[in-house]
Specification:
- The protein is an alpha/beta fold.
- The protein has three domains: 191 residues, inorganic pyrophosphatase (n-terminal core) (Alpha-Beta Complex); 153 residues, no CATH class; 115 residues, Diaminopimelate Epimerase, Chain A, domain 1 (Roll), CATH 3.10.310.40.
- Helices cover 46% and strands 15% of the residues.
- The chain is built from 18 helices and 15 strands.
- The strands form four sheets. The protein has a six-stranded mixed beta sheet. It has a five-stranded parallel beta sheet with strand order 2-1-3-4-5.
- β7 and β8 form a beta hairpin.
- α1 packs across α5, α12 packs antiparallel against α13 and α12 packs across α14.
- The longest helix has 31 residues.
- It is globular.
- The structure holds manganese (II) ion (MN).
- The site of manganese (II) ion (MN) has 6 residues, from loops.
């Protein structure tokens, strides 16, 4: 489908006009970094309009949640980062309860369930309807940003939040970790009003703020084998480089280093990764060097000054079930709530580092091999939200064989387990579609299992007593996908 910008703009205009005329708006959004930034961005633009709002952060909207939300007094409901996959449920509630018909706006970038339907009370804003790539070039925060910009050009300063959301959904897909398409347009807006500065540098967490040893120790994207996660080995590694780590008794940061010193550090890191991964150094270099996005209005010591750190901060709030803190930070709180967010982030970071260390120490024992898949059972060791994050970090750093999809298992509720699946581009090319496999396996075992997602990343929730059966069926389905794509 070719890109139709005009149609996309029309849908933005309709949404913005509905918002302008409203008195009270319910914002319903997702609990990940993209969802939290989208909610904050919309709330901020409504505040500027003088429109009252209420925010509810969800994991997934079900029929009963949608139905109870539509019961509320408010005349307008906005779904952010969700809704396109639940349009059938919204229409069903409208049909089942005609008195609950309300004006609904959907600001989403996921695959739409229904593209053609007639209902003037649903404004569907999704760039995928108009030929744009919702997986890589625009997030829900980006869609929300375009609505905010249609409301008032002055909202261009909110472009920074839109990029935080895009990073939350891993949309820095250009080779140098930059943005393309609609996200790039948002970036240009941000630059034009001085809200965003784009630079190229070593991509190490805390580059403007943290003492160098701390920054290097906590680097996990990419992970520096034998250096990250351990203060002792990290200090040893750094002292071998002969780079002064303090100036006048004060810790230096990555951004304080001279070009020569940076080069030295960069080469040493690439060397360390190359020892473990046996990949060519140019491609490793490309992983660790690239675009950074700075928000100059934020103070130098704040996590919210760097887009990637902002993303990590609010994502940790979502993963720790502290959505309110995440949204408040997006709304601009840099006082007490911000401090609470930093505390949550530090606790999360330490917990995550322990889980990653657990995996690295136990790799052989932790990973079980099936014929066409491999899985890690983290029940009782790693909690649900950390487990799916861990699956991503394992995949990014290629810590396991790329020849088989990885499934991770974590406890979810009393009798349900949560399964996260990660494939890679190589497997997708060979015919693997994890989303389909998870959905099919859930349908086959029936009895309370649900699953689905994208070809490369998917998830399922399965009754604990059927886990073994589920894994076996997924393995068989993957085998079939591999064979049928060879024909
Ligand atoms: Mn999203």
């Amino acid at each position: 489908m070719s890109k139709n910008r005009e149609k996309f703009n029309e849908s933005l205009k309709v949404a913005s006009e509905v918002l302008k005329d409203s008195k009270f708006v319910w914002i319903i959004s997702h609990h990940d970094a993209d969802g939290l930034s989208a909610a904050g961005l919309l709330a901020k633009s409504l505040m500027r309009l003088g429109v009252l709002f209420h925010i509810r952060i969800l994991f997934q909207p079900t029929y009963s949640i949608i139905s109870s939300l539509l019961k509320s007094e408010s005349s307008v409901l906005v779904f952010c980062d969700m809704g396109s996959g639940q349009i059938d449920q919204i229409i069903k509630v409208f049909k089942d309860y005609p008195d609950r018909r309300r004006q609904v706006i959907i600001l989403d970038h996921h695959q739409p369930l229904l593209e053609d339907f007639e209902d003037s009370e649903i404004v569907h804003v999704n760039p995928m309807l108009f030929g744009f790539d919702g997986a890589e070039e625009i997030s829900a925060s980006g869609v929300t940003y375009f609505v905010a910009r249609a409301l008032d050009e002055k909202n261009k300063d909110l472009s920074s939040l839109a990029l935080v959301g895009a990073l939350g959904d891993k949309q820095d897909k250009e080779e140098n970790h930059g943005f393309y398409g609609l996200n790039r347009e948002i970036l240009e807006d941000g630059k034009s009003v001085g809200a965003i500065v784009e630079i190229e540098d070593i991509r190490i967490f805390g580059r403007e703020r943290d003492p160098i040893p701390l920054a290097v120790e906590y680097t996990i994207d990419p992970l520096v084998p034998g250096v990250s996660l351990s203060p002792e080995t990290c200090n040893k590694f750094l002292s071998g480089l002969n780079i002064p780590l303090k100036k006048d008794g004060v810790w230096r940061t990555i951004s304080d280093l001279s070009d020569e010193e940076k080069q030295k550090l960069l080469e040493a890191i690439v060397e360390k990764i190359a020892e473990k991964r046996r990949e060519d150094k140019t491609s490793i270099f490309k992983e660790i060097f690239g675009k950074e996005y700075i928000f100059p209005q934020e103070s130098r010591d704040s996590y919210t000054r760097n887009a990637r750190e902002y993303d990590a901060l609010i994502a940790s709030c979502g993963r720790s079930s502290k959505n309110g803190v995440g949204v408040s930070i997006c709304l601009g709180d840099r006082g007490e709530t911000y401090k609470e967010g930093v505390k949550i982030f530090n606790e999360y970071r330490a917990k995550f580092a322990r889980s990653l260390q657990w995996f690295i120490n136990n790799e052989k024992k932790a990973v079980e091999q099936l014929k066409h898949t491999q899985f890690i059972d983290g029940r009782g060791v790693v909690d649900e939200f950390i487990m799916s994050h861990l699956a991503s970090v394992i995949a990014i750093n290629r810590l396991l064989s790329p020849e088989k999809p990885l499934l991770t298992i974590a406890g979810f509720s009393e009798d349900l387990v949560k399964i996260s699946g990660r494939a890679n581009e190589y497997l997708v090319k060979k015919g693997v579609n994890l989303g389909l496999a998870m959905r099919e396996a859930s349908t086959l075992i029936n009895e309370g299992a649900v699953g689905g997602g994208h070809n490369i990343a998917a998830g399922a929730k399965v009754p604990e007593n059927l886990l073994e059966k589920f894994l076996k069926i997924v393995d068989e389905i993957i085998a079939k996908q591999l064979i049928s794509s060879q024909d």
